[in-house]
User: Fold these one by one.
Assistant:
Number 1:
Amino acid sequence: YNRRRQFYTDLLVRASMYRRRSQSSRSGASPRSTIGEFRSALLPVLLVASIWCFIFWTSLWFSLYDSLSDDVDDNRLFNRRGKGVLAKKLEQFLAGSPSPETVDVRRWEESTIEDSVLRRMVDPDSSSKLQQFLKQSSGGYPNLIIEAFLETALETDGTERLASRASNNPQDLVRTAYPYNRESASSNFDKQGACSRVGAQWTLPTSHPPALDKIFDRNVLRKENMYDHRHALAGISIEKNNFGFCPVDADPFLPWLHDVFPSGDGSFIELVISNKRRCNTDPNKFVSDLINLEPQIALMQPVPVKRGGSGRYVLATSIDDADKDGRQTRFICRFHSSILEGTTLRNIELGETLSTYSYNPEHANYLKRGSKPILTSLEQGHDEQIWNAVWNARCPVPQFVEGDGLTLQAFIASGKTVLHGVPSVYLDLVPVRTPARRTKEGFGIPGVKSTFDPDLVWGDDHYLPSVQASGRLVNIPVCLPPTVERPVIDVGDFELTRPSERKDKTHFLVGCVWAAHSFSTRGQTTISDQSTSSRLLEFLTYHTSIAGFDHVYVYDNSLSNRTLQHVTDLFPRDVVTRIPWPHRVCNNNRPMHSNPGERSSQYAAESSCRARYGPNTLWMASLDVDEYLIPTGNWTSIREWLEHVTRREKKTKILSFYQTRALPNVDTMVIDGIANHVSLDAKIRGGDLVKDPNKTFLETYNCEPTVHPKPQEWAWRAKKQIYNPSYVLNHFVHYSVVSKQVLDNP
């Protein structure tokens, strides 16, 4: 603006000089000399003007190019920005107004708060008004609640080919809602925000509460198929408001989500998904469940997708035919926000992306020695392929960039999209629905010939229905990324924080624990153990103060108001973190039962801990509260020994410890509080022995019946591991079931 103003000033000065000289020529000066002087004066002006125009239009071109480059995968995003960068700059130029680079910061903030989507999303005043509006219109919830649009089962056209769903009608979907924390709120204004706790996992609809076991059957010694209760579980009823507990049995293409959270840099949303088909697998009792839940296997099998006309997606018949970001995908990920305009709630689409996998589950299963297809036959029922119990998908965050350079990814990474525990960004998951493949070699695995024929199954022009006409999960809250070091990054006048990009890790050794205030052992229906609080206190004290763990993450699986928070609050927050984890175990039978147990909640918790906190630690261990890693020999702590191993064995990524069960030392026990000095004979004659409340669990259970070395033929089954979470891609209680070695060097 200043350069343009100076240019016009110089031009006027030179013009006035020309007029004076012209007048002097008319009063007797030579015309030829006057024209020569005019040309000499005009030549530098034209040269400066040409250079200025070249610089101006070149800068406009690069601005336009950068804008279009950001949106190369989604042309509609550029159009949603309104007139775009080029039009705004042209308007500013023609109007003679200052450009944003030179405007006063305070004035710019005031003038753009109504126009900027990202800034308005995180503006405290706008957010507070929106939260109050939602509380009054949605039963006290300050944010949108999770909903599901249920779709009917897939059909064929009479042959093997998948019937077209391109003409699906949105009115054919069944809409259900899943309010969280329903039983704890007594009024419309005491509901917590979906991000008011660590993560959003506690709001996800995974199972019915224990109080309704009489209706839906319990999770041990189960007799009824979940298929028989699918409509009631999903909340399908003749009532106006359909509130449910879990939509997966009613629409098994919906993922059985157990956790969702942003990556530290805000580039993607991590999804921890359990395989619900493994819950009840006795083929003599649960045939309906095994057949109904086959789509849960399909979700683990990538499909190639490309973009067609009118914003629709098409199934590709080969990896090469698919879009670059759709070669191995399974979900359409739609990001959106809400803005209140007067009394109208306006939905703001922030963009769509195609999901990816943290690793290809079908490929990993193929590489496993002696493995079977992921989809086992009904006759086989339950399989021992434990690496297929839980898996992870990722939704890339759209490259939503506003005219001032602020990005959606930066806002999510900074944590500013969550205000007072209430999210301003939501995720919708739209599964790409295809039948589960029954071949072990899958489809699209490099170098592997497959008998699966996509031309036969879905053809070369199989259009997917629009998002509005597709079954889907909506309004999944995007909460804060896992707590990591966040250096401040100054973006103009708007301060953001972003996770550290240091290559070294924040921690050296961390632990993951899945526990509950009370629990029942496998196969137990009536008796519950209430000792977890005292066990956890000792466990945390030992591992953080003696063993040398930097941090322990406690996944609290308490299903009542009595939780483990009173224990975890005794420790500093930078040492112990409690994650509410209300997901129930779907099958608590013993392993050798005809319907073997499936501790789905534990498996998903371990996967969540690795994905959440693994990127910021070198070593990780998953332990129970009754499991201790004790150094022997000259070592005084596990950390000291592990540091030695890390220095000496740089290629070691997994350390295994064979485990056998310790027994209580009867000399340390009492009979219902009788003093320790009573003889053992008196204790035995007097009744049952119990733990002395004045002694620790570690001191009491200090009787090792199995001498070293531990027997390899059976002690390895209960082994525990310390592992490198960047190398281990899937850890299952005792085993590193998928690692980079499996994928890179099978």
Number 2:
Amino acid sequence: MAGKEAVVFILDTFPSMNSPYPKDSESTRLSQAKRAVINAIADQSWRSKTHECGCIVLKTGLTHHHMAVMDGIDDENALGYYFRKVARGKKVHVDLDDEVHFPNLIEFDLNRITPQTLRAISHVCSTSDESNADVMQGDLCDGLIVAADALYQRTNGKKFKRKIVLFTDAEHKVSVDGSQLQAVLDGLNKMECEVIVVGIGFDDEKDFSSIAKSSDDAGMKQEDEDNDLDQPDKITSNDAPTAEESDSNIKEEGDVDNEDMEDLKMESDSRARVKRENQMLLMSIAKETGGCVLATNGADIEDTLQRKMPSKAGRKNAQRYETDFHIAPNLTVSVRLAKMTEQCNLPSLKKGALQFDPDSGDALRDGAGELMTHDTGTLTRHFEAEQLEAGIENEVPLDMRVDAYRYGCDLIPVGKMDLAGINAAFAGDTNRSIEVIGYLVRDDVVDSGLLMGPAYCVVGGKESNKSRSAVAALAQAMDEMGKVGFCRLVKTKNGGAPIIGALFPMASDGGRHLQFLQLPFADDVQHFQNRDMDPFTGSEEQVQTCEDLIDSLMLPDGDFERVSNPTFKAYRQMIVDFAMNAVPKKEELREEGLPEENILLAAQPKPLCKFDATKILAKKASGKISAFLEEFPLQETKEDEKKKKYWGDDV
């Protein structure tokens, strides 16, 4: 799979996109679609700086894309200014010039992601109304053609994973040039580019990614006998719209039943008829490219897109390393070791030095209005403490410095090479290795409560059938006997201090493998003294109440693996907000930073207790919680009573 991704988003701005969504809400179809686009682009930016994104806006009244560049439009800031003027009431002139290729489309160039692009997309609005919407060109087919050409011009011959994502309610009339569209779909198939349609208000959805594409030269003329949808299987390229077809301005053929055609003719609402025909067209396009059609059905548009393009910001792909696996004396096989879990931390801030004009003293800014900075470095200097107290800065030369460990009231000098020698002596050879020392009862290890992370996955060698068989057989035997392996692991390639842990047998759909979890050495265990807990002397009713409460709060299987860190989500939301909404110049240089209320507004922190799943569980278990409170009533503690009592108080 290609490491870099190129995604072009297509955003429909037909007046119907201004309808409230969901019904009776303040948000609109367009506002939710914009939010989904911005967050998807931001997710691509978090994952890698090499990912590229672009956006094409339909029905804009202004033509600006790589096939028809308008004079006076230099960058995304000018495009954002155009939408801001329209939002303030500027009258839109519909571009009807027949010599312009694909008029009334605005393109944010496919390129690496910048804050300017996010800001401009956030200002996108509907520029047409009922008076000029039907005569304005720039429909979804035109947008698809321009998007496909942009992908070809930018990524042809390069290793990219390509996608086109279309957000539309499909309620505007579409003009289809069959031969041109067929050529575009053939080109998308050659580039292995899938088309994802997010259909707002669609009735049906279908994922064609798992359906094998036919290699027949007829391509789109091949019918699928197993298709259970009353959608056309292909788009013909022989006919153009006739005068009798001007209502929908669409020409397409497929395996639509006669009854369905009669239903189309019987529909009195032309907008509903156009929407249904467009749904069939988009279903065919998605099928030909191995993409999908997602129906929102009143759900959040961003959540709908997440089903096909889940957020992957912060996720790491585990790397597998070849490792020697010593199963027993004189029995060694080659296996692969991969880390399964690792604690993620917020990235460290990059420090920079502001550049100032030597004459005026004002901070310098670049062409985009951003502050200009220099890279900074860290330099540590050492001085003699006694002389420094006397006001004499006498720096200690490098050859006179030494590292030492405190031993009692004295300091024992120890060099870095001494420490490296100790680690090498205990690590043995310099290769990664896992060595089984013996076996333990599985329940004893689990009940000890001493298992530590991270977890490592151990699978057979890539090119060794014997290795894979040995790992699978060992896992099956330990599983049947209820045992785990007690082993020693050297993680690093160049040796290092070994760790000990338990090797658990695991089974999955792909076969059996082993999982390593670290155990502490005796020196790692923190010893504490605590008096024995009082035994429970309550009634059976109280025990049953506790059991009912636990059952009512049970999570579905696997949900614990999908809990995102709310701190990371708030952090990413804050950075994206700062990128889109530039901080006023007066506040950029404040030493105390931004006010706390501004940061909370940008980050929108949401603790786990506010998640939808938590609220649903709490509502579901409300009756059991009330029963628990009745069995174990809370007692208010008086302020004059001591909150803590130690065993020494009674002595």
Number 3:
Amino acid sequence: ENHISSLQLGLVVAPVIFLFITYFLVPSYSLWMGCAACIISLAAIAYSLLILMWILDKKEGPYAMRQVSEPILEGSEGFFLAQYGTIVKLTFMSSLALFALYMLRSDDNTSNPASLSKLFSKYFLAFTVALSFIIGAVCSAISGYAGMWVSVRANVRVAAAALKCYNDAMQICLRGGAFAAIVNVGLAVFGVSSLFLTLFVMVQLRAEPVDVEHIPFLMVGFGFGASFVAMFAQLGGGIYTKAADVGADLIGKVEVGFPEDDPRNPAVIADLVGDNVGDCAGQAADLFESISAEIISAMILGGVLAKEAGFDETTKVGFILFPLSVHCLDLFVSTIGVMSVSTRSGLPDFDPDYGEIEDPLDVLKRGYMYSLGFGTFGFILLCYFLLNVPNNPTAWKCYTCCGLIGIAVSYLFVIMTQYYTDYNYRPVQRIAEASQTGHATNIIAGLSVGLESTGLPILVISFGLLSSNYLGDYAGITNAKGENVGGLFGTAVATMGMFTTAVYVLSMSGFGPIADNAGGIVEMSGQAANVRVITDRLDAVGNVTKANTKGYSVGSASLACFLLFSAFLDEITSFMPPETPFTTIDIAVPEIFVGGLLGAGSVFLFSAWAIVAVGESAQQVVKEVRRQFKENPGILEGTTRPDYKSCVELVARSGLREMIKPGLLAVLSPLVTGIVFRFIGEFKGRKLLGAEVVASFLMFATCTGILMALFLNNGGGAWDNAKKYVETGKLGGKNSDTHKAAVTGDTVGDPCKDTAGPSIHILMKLLSTITLVCAPIFIAG
């Protein structure tokens, strides 16, 4: 313990000393800022390894627990390797296609000397986009693997800790999620900053150096690579986890009356494996690509603003690299929050004076408030030092207020999601009460809660978007014509405010599946009822934190997609003559309106394919379990061990097969739409028609995606917790008719909240990043 404490102190002090020394040695402020982000992110990743050492030092518990956890580990890692083998092939082919698209593009004929195609050859553009795509994909894959790797090792240690100490069980659970979260955000910062440094050095070595604001445009492939891998990771993992979960619940709880995670259920190991490959790996990849896309789009907008306002070099670099600085702050303050989380040691069974067990959610919220407080203070300091415009003392104050709006929006999203998905509140209780009159009324109540839950979040998003935009305009930053140009960057700062505590939120997300797995291990290894009480408390809170993370993801995705849309307009403008900026999309034009319809329709079609994939895979699980029960009656009596492996292999094959179709729809739909209308535009003499139609496609798809994701996430989460509410003993309790109706609702909600809903977060950003990367090919030659 003392050895680790010394290392922790060293990892905090050493980077500060190193940055102080290099500040006076590095000749360029841009270079120093990029190096600072790299060093801080590497120090954070190193710190996460110390957290991992602390987790692995904990005991794995008795042999019975290890016997259950080993198949979960093997199944998770086996599926992950197979899944990412497929993703690697798709990534390689896509990088070649990107390179070819840029190489085959006709030469730029614009008279704009600042056009990207005038500043860089098409060979250089093709190479940097393809390379950054691969780097983004690799970083996204590593972040997903880290989430899964720690989960399958922390689960058994949480179960073992629950035998003796409530505090240890909770800390292992949260710190397991924190390891993955720190690696996730650290990799995003390191990947973007190292790519920035590499490109900065390359362009400065040219015979004619290029201004720093052009560099973010060369990095757009990184965000696309991250989104590409995240899409297939979330789809494959989501289909796996929910097919196993739905199948296990339908056959186990409804048909046979087994309790949760009963070892007689042949699908139970597949269900526990799914928690790791879906909720851990998929969610990690989701937030990685959110953060990457937000950083790059905000860097683009910061560079455009700095250029229009004519800032000096130091101020310009501050605006461009501000997003990286915010995430470095996040790594620091969220880690403080995670390490502060603790409650009373021991268990009531061993200590008569222990008292009531503290609600895990209250403990986690306490740590979140620490992170939020430190993060708010740090954000104000960053705004003062990096966004302080000479001769304009109000600018940094306005942008600070924009960031505070973003922080408030993120907090409100967590609260609203909790209201609609926690069984302590009326919406979930309403679904549970409707279950008393049957399966159909449960479904009707769940649908109404999901639809209703879109209202308040949309109002909050609208308020955050407009108020941050207005405050950005009020900052008083003007272009050469005297026009205010700071509004969009105000929205970018608000988005960065939302991510000030991203590491802590992602840590809470990882808490859920680890606790769920721990509960399964306790149940399947035949531990005492008092041990299951501890893991059940953690699991119940884990469901709330997972739902909160989904709400947080939708809120951040909404603002991030607006930034990406604005960055797309700027990207098109960068290829156009200076007198024809690309700023207006007229949806009254038939082709542009059709593009919008196609964008909205793609969200519905994508959701349908994701949900039906779960349904068809779950049917196969149910048939396999029925076959085992019929051929081996000893399974039901508990005298014969089920064949867990056959269910694991069945769901793995299904997940890998079914993820391809919706994934390709997400990648190809905007490309095909843009290219088709580009050629129509050439025929009609409208050079920008392809870009305009794609912009409309993006706009409608984003709006539809926000509403659809909120509906699916919250509706599914409410159905799930209505079942858990009944399982606490309310309204008849387990194995009652009310419980069976609630289980039906839960199984309907499963593919909504854990497959289609989270995948839509990625869909929105994937559509934005792929169009941002491929923007040049939508412009007619």
